[in-house]
Amino acid sequence: MKRNIKELVSQMTLEEKAGMCSGLDFWHLKSVERLGIPSVMVSDGPHGLRKQDEKADHLGINDSIKAVCFPPAVLSACSFDRDLMYEFGDAIGKEAQANDLSVVLGPAVNIKRSPLCGRNFEYYSEDPYLAGEIAAAFINGVQKHHVGTSIKHFAANNQEFNRMSCSSNVDERTLREIYFPAFETAVKKAKPYTVMCSYNQINGTFASENPWLLTDVLRDEWGFDGYVMSDWGAVNERVPGLKAGLELEMPSSNGIYDKEIVEAVKDGSLDEKILDQAVERILNIVFKYTDHREEQEFTLEADHKLAKKIAEESMVLLKNDSVLPLNETENIAFIGEFAKKPRFQGGGSSHINSYRVSNVLEAVPQNASITYAKGFSAKDDIYDEALAKEAIELAKAADKVVIFAGLPDSFESEGYDRAHMQLPECQNRLIHEILAVQSEVIIVLHNGSPVELPWLSSVKGILEAYLGGQAVGEAVADILFGKTCPCGKLAETFPYKLSDNPSYLSFGDGINVTYQEGIFVGYRYYDTKEMPVAFPFGYGLSYTSFAYSNLRTDKTRFTDHDTITVSVDVTNTGSRKGKEIIQLYISDRTGSIRRPLRELKGYEKILLHPGESKTVQFTLDYRSFAWYNTEINDWYAASGDYEIQIGASSRDIRLTENLRLSTQKRLPLKVHGNTTLGELLADERTSEYAMNFKKQLENIFGTSSGNNENEDIAISDEMNFAMIASMPLRNVVSYGLCSKATLIDMIDQINQKSDL
Ligand code: BGC
């Protein structure tokens, strides 16, 4: 059905239009019955429906309908699997249609700047490429059912402390390279129906009233054509917000801001066309949904199975000194209350009322020989002598021990940040005590963000289960007992300690938070610094092994408009079927600007049977090599060499290949008296001017004519050149190479060249 939305808007009164720009209540948009505009519902969230029928809140306090809790983003991102994320989105879209939800409030793609952010469990990664790819696949899955998504929280919302007022002070290059691309990729590849702007300010302007963010970048540059809604209560000033591109205020301000809009139109301070356009954008999406209502069949049970599949394809095996998989003939002790009461989701607005939760004790194979001791509570950090004693006795008697450790709910949640990066002390203490009596120890972790691992070198196995969703128990049991071959890889680095993290000195600062580490976030920092880490980005073990060979590219030289195909062969060299995640990183070797040592620009996940080989292909373009240059407000990659690195993690690069770029893009050059001779020599547009001076200076300083055999010579040619290169142009006058007037003429002449 083709609707004429413009015509519809023209029939609305000013009050009706202003009313359309804020919610009816916590979860609904308003209706205009006389014009056939229905009221539609929106609801959290990214890993399951939190549809509240009765008492509403945005903090996950009151109950919502029973639904399937899929693995939160912290885990699903570790799947590195676009198809799986599409399937995940497809299930959420179906559930949303069946429950009459027009928009699902997710996915959340904020970058994990620090392990301390209380909401990291809702976010995908420290890497914007991965977060963008995962989000786009998820959105495409949901929206296939004409249910919208609301990608959030746009933008630079990376901490919970003061989240509604703080200003994320970030330079533009960093925003463009780190904090924006997940949104950009999703907008370009999946066209989310809506975007949710964040609570915080960016460089002193609230995201909810930032025209550069909401209009220039989001719409004009990226082509977003849905509507922007505010995070719940994120509106600071309504009329400036509307002008900036914030169409919908959520939930509502009891009509107060609607009135301000009406008054602003009446007194001429707001052009009514802006209001009309906002209403049009909202109604487009409302009808996109209501015109495509469809019968949906889904069962919670089938979705529970999918939740299990996502969990087991995402959990990360971090360590395995020949201790896993477990065997049904072994006597195994399970220790820790998480074995009975797994922590499988985080607190806050994404909290799902799970219709059932599986624990690992119930999910182990029937004939497995398991004993269990609580050891410690999953809720707090209190060392209990009696519980510990019982656990140690059990551990002593067992062949192997699996300790289920993790963060209690209160340690991380929406609304506040973590105070430190440690597990509860009582857990670390008991792990050490068990290690004193038992060498075969495996740790299963239930946490929403990295933790310090003080016993890392002493345990034999670690399975990172993160927050596994409601089917966590089955997924963990199947991996532990080898029914499933682990195939997830870390979407974030595990530093050894919190103070290693690049944001350590500024994270959580008062109202103004300076992102002083710039683009060096996550592995971009650790790898460039060559800093030892507990586990690197992209890392994860398998029960089988893989060999990489035959890296090739379809060209070795390329220009701005080329695409490059990179191929590599991967073989399963182990004895069981398994999946491998192959990562492609690019390392800029041009030396033209400081950049991270490597950046992820492609990944693929493939299934291989023992002995089987497959060829994996990646496509790269100019943007894959580029950084954001604020001088030209565009992406730029300098001419020169770039290394393609194929790895099993960011620290396990298996194959490399060199490519040479010759770009047609020229950076603007404004020559003045303090431009150095080196800068002029390095630029083909100006090198001829500088060459003459260079020669004359060499005559003055004396050179060895390239034949420097005299050890006594105090200044080598290299030293000579370095000194000349760092000389400002004005010095040629003081060295008597030309007059000041001649130099000024020459500078004018250079600056007038059209290609500068
Ligand atoms: C959260 C959003 C959420 C909204 C509605 C806010 O507090 O930041 O992510 O979608 O509440 O529950």
Describe this structure as you would to a colleague.
- There is one protein chain.
- This protein is α/β, with parallel strands linked by helices.
- Helices cover 30% and strands 18% of the residues.
- The chain has 23 helices and 27 strands.
- The strands form seven sheets. The chain has a six-stranded mixed β-sheet with strand order 10-16-15-14-11-13, covered by helices on one side. It has a five-stranded parallel β-sheet with strand order 1-3-4-6-9.
- The radius of gyration is 29 Å and the shape is globular.
- 51% of the residues are buried.
- The protein binds beta-D-glucopyranose.
- The site of beta-D-glucopyranose (BGC) has 7 residues, from loops.
What's the helical proportion of residues? 25-40%
Which hetero compounds are present in the coordinates? beta-D-glucopyranose
* Percent in strands: 15-25%
| Radius of gyration from the alpha-carbon trace, in angstroms | 29 Å
Spatial gap, N to C terminus: 53 Å
Instruction: Extract low-pLDDT stretches.
Output: none
Structural class: alpha/beta
Strand order of the largest sheet: 10-16-15-14-11-13
How many DSSP H or I helices? 23
Largest β sheet strand count, sense and barrel closure: 6 strands, mixed
On the 0 to 100 scale, the average pLDDT is 95
Shape: globular
